[in-house]
């Protein structure tokens, strides 16, 4: 089909072709075709199914709710939100123009800036943002019941998380890929900007350390998982070289090759893990794994983006999306019921075994990724805008990518809630409570007042044996719970009992893939932020502003990995259980980071005179500030030693002075570590809250000034005409295929170079 054929097939004003050079084909296509009656009926049907599913979950319920209703409620809501609410944001705020060159096209250097195929970029972005959060947070929050979690995950992503990701990507692209901290500095002024820069950098170190800690907990003493994860690195390197030099533009071809190699790595991991030499080489201690992760983060940050980062993230996306879709299929076939009640007693008491704190505010910071995550804003203003080929692709990648991650969070919540309640709490309660043995753990969880028959020590031991593990007691961190819940669903429709252990270890490797891709992209983004900040200081440091200065990239990467690596090692050796003490700080820091991002976006919207649409970022910002400031207040000032960092610190400081033990410490050395760690965590809690309040007040001041003057200048980069073409959505429309054919002919003739190909 040619462009003329498309014109003849549509009304005269339905299709608009954007041109910037009379000698080249169009660089963009605007399709204004009205929605057809068939599509209207389809969306109406989706809305009805979604409404019925929500009614079954929240109103009808009954004694046991089938997990199918959670899947239907979530997916139907996503479809409606993407089609209508995301379009409203695109129409009112983003207003994309594909005849305007993106950051990737203007600054293309083959290393950090590169117009990338939208499908590969979607894979990279989704892999980068979908880390530990959507897997760990919902699993931990399941102690409060399934209903609060699923409501926050789905409603939160539609009106908060996806909005933030989409608008930050839009704002960063219009500013030559500036990082979140640098945009805050440019838009909020010196005081607010400096507070944002410092806050973003420090928070980023906490986020990366906790993400790495989850990887360490999942892979420690697991040779199968370590080997399979390690093999994704050479596979990604091969894919990067293949796509850039051997067969440029052959995305489908290299995708198939990479997928086959990935499956082989998973199967080979089982053989290696069961061999004598494999067990010796790939059974690693938490400390060794931590050091290897630091080294990997450094390399991923300094190597060209096309060589390791993008292909590895794209490769892992096959694994991620494929596994989640398979899990959805498994739920539809197996139809498991949720053993966890809609709302548990721990939601009100705040005395949950998994983490302390009441439903408000701690549910909303425990479930961050999947609903609202500030970390996403760092990716949306880090690597992704430097790879975006067309402005119109931002909706699919920013809003659509976050909806996909939200589905992951729903699957994690289901995996936790289909387990027997007693088993769930035996896995997730700290060792100090369970005693670490089947007998003591059974006695502990049977005393929690849970519904259903009590669990025996033999049943707890069998749960570990069934998945090929020595123990599942106090395997905190969320990853083991998700894995055992996933194996519970998978083995019932593929393979039976004989494959239960396989599916458990498959899930562990799947989770590690999720998280590791966040660490590599996050380290690179942190390097961008750090070099931007150093460049602001001027003098000899001004050279750090040059994104192509490789020495600066190496220096910045080394500082970043040293910072988050030291916090990781602190968490690995924490007597209170690194994930138990660091994850609340992680959640608060993550949501405070989202407050910074939403403040920057709201300020930009108001300064551009879009007051009519300011409510879109303002509503999630007000909610986020309310939640995070309440949680910060409790973590800082609470007199409950299960909740307050400073209360824990004072108790152990007194014990250290008296020469006794405190809390879960088993030795004087443990007491010393708790005193040190709680001081650091308490201090960081105060620092984060103060910095974010400064940013919020600075944003309010700038917005009020802009309102009084009817708008204000922003720091958008000058427009430059685009000279490349790329479809807007995942599947090209007939009009886009026709234009793409014209460009392909010019590329084949050697007249022009394919976007992203080697120079």
UniProtKB/TrEMBL annotation:
Its membrane topology:
Multi-pass membrane protein
Q: Which residues form the CstA N-terminal domain?
A: 66-631
Pfam families, A to Z = CstA
Compartment(s): Cell membrane
> InterPro entries recorded for this chain?
CstA, CstA_N
Give the keywords, sorted: Cell membrane, Membrane, Transmembrane, Transmembrane helix, Transport
What parts of the sequence cross the membrane? 41-60, 66-85, 120-140, 146-169, 190-216, 222-242, 254-273, 288-309, 321-338, 358-384, 396-416, 501-519, 553-573, 585-606, 613-633, 679-700
PANTHER family in UniProt: INNER MEMBRANE PEPTIDE TRANSPORTER, PYRUVATE_PROTON SYMPORTER BTST
The entry sums up its family as follows: Belongs to the peptide transporter carbon starvation (CstA) (TC 2.A.114) family.
Q: What is this protein called?
A: Carbon starvation protein A
- The organism is Skermania pinensis
Classification of source organism: Bacteria, Bacillati, Actinomycetota, Actinomycetes, Mycobacteriales
């Amino acid at each position: 089909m040619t462009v003329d054929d498309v014109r003849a097939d549509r009304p005269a004003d339905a299709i608009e072709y954007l041109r910037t050079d009379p000698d080249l084909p169009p660089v963009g296509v605007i399709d204004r075709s009205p929605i057809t009656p068939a599509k209207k009926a389809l969306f109406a049907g989706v809305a009805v199914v979604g409404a019925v599913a929500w009614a079954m979950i929240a109103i009808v319920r009954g004694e046991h709710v089938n997990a199918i209703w959670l899947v239907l409620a979530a997916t139907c809501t996503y479809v409606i939100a993407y089609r209508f609410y995301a379009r409203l944001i695109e129409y009112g705020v983003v207003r994309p123009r594909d005849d305007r060159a993106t950051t990737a096209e203007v600054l293309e250097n083959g290393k950090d800036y590169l117009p990338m195929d939208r499908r590969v970029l979607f894979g990279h972005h989704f892999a980068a943002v979908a880390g530990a959060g959507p897997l760990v947070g919902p699993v931990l929050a399941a102690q409060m019941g399934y209903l609060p979690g699923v409501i926050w995950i789905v409603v939160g992503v539609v009106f908060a998380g996806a909005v933030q990701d989409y608008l930050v990507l839009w704002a960063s692209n219009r500013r030559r890929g500036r990082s979140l901290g640098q945009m805050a500095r440019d838009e909020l002024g010196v005081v607010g900007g400096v507070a944002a820069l410092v806050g973003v950098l420090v928070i980023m170190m906490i986020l990366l350390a906790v993400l790495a800690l989850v990887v360490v907990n999942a892979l420690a003493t697991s040779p199968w998982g370590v080997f399979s994860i390690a093999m994704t690195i050479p596979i990604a390197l091969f894919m990067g070289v293949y796509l850039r030099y051997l067969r440029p533009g052959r995305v489908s071809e290299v995708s198939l090759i990479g997928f086959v190699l990935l499956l082989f790595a998973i199967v080979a991991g089982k053989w290696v893990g069961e061999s004598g030499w494999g067990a010796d080489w790939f059974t690693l201690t938490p400390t060794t794994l931590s050091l290897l992760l630091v080294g990997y983060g450094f390399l991923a940050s300094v190597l060209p983006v096309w060589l390791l980062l993008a292909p590895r993230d794209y490769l892992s996306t096959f694994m991620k999306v494929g596994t989640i879709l398979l899990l959805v299929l498994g739920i539809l076939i197996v139809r498991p019921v949720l053993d966890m009640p809609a709302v548990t007693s721990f939601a009100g008491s705040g005395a949950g075994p998994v983490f302390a704190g009441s439903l408000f505010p701690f549910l909303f910071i425990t479930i961050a990724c999947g609903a609202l995550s500030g970390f996403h804003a760092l990716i949306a203003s880090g690597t992704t805008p430097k790879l975006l080929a067309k402005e119109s692709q931002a909706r699919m990648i920013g809003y659509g990518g976050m909806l996909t991650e939200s589905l992951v969070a729903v699957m994690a919540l289901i995996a936790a809630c289909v387990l027997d309640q007693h088993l769930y709490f035996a896995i997730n309660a700290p060792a100090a409570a369970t005693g670490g043995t089947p007998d003591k753990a059974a006695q502990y969880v049977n005393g929690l007042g849970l519904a259903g028959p009590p669990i025996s020590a033999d049943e707890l031991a069998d749960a570990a044996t069934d998945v090929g593990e020595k123990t599942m007691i106090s395997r905190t961190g969320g990853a083991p719970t998700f894995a055992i819940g996933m194996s519970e669903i998978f083995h019932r429709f593929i393979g039976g009992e004989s494959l239960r252990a396989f599916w458990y270890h498959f899930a562990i490797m799947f989770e590690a893939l999720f998280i590791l891709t966040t660490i590599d992209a996050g380290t690179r983004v942190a390097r961008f932020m750090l070099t931007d900040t150093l460049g602001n200081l001027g003098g000899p440091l001004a050279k750090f502003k040059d994104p192509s200065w490789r020495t600066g990239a190496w220096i910045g990467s080394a500082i970043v990995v040293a910072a988050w690596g030291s916090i990781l090692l602190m968490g690995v050796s924490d007597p209170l259980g690194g994930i138990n003490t660091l994850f609340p700080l992680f959640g608060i820091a993550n949501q405070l980071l989202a407050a910074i991002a939403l403040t920057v976006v709201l300020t930009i919207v108001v300064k551009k005179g879009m007051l009519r649409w300011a409510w879109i970022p303002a509503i999630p910002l007000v909610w986020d500030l309310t939640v995070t400031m309440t949680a910060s207040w409790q973590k800082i000032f609470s007199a409950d030693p299960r909740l307050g960092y400073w209360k824990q610190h004072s108790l152990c400081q007194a014990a250290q002075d008296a020469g006794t033990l405190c809390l879960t410490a088993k030795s004087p050395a443990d007491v010393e570590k708790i005193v040190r760690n709680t001081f650091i965590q308490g201090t960081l809690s105060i620092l984060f809250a103060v910095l974010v309040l400064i940013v919020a007040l600075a944003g309010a001041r700038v917005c009020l000034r802009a309102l009084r003057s009817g708008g204000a200048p922003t720091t958008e980069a000058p427009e430059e005409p685009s000279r490349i073409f790329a479809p807007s959505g995942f599947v090209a429309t007939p009009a886009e295929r026709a234009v793409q054919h014209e460009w392909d002919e010019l590329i084949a003739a050697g007249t022009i170079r394919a976007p992203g190909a080697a120079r």
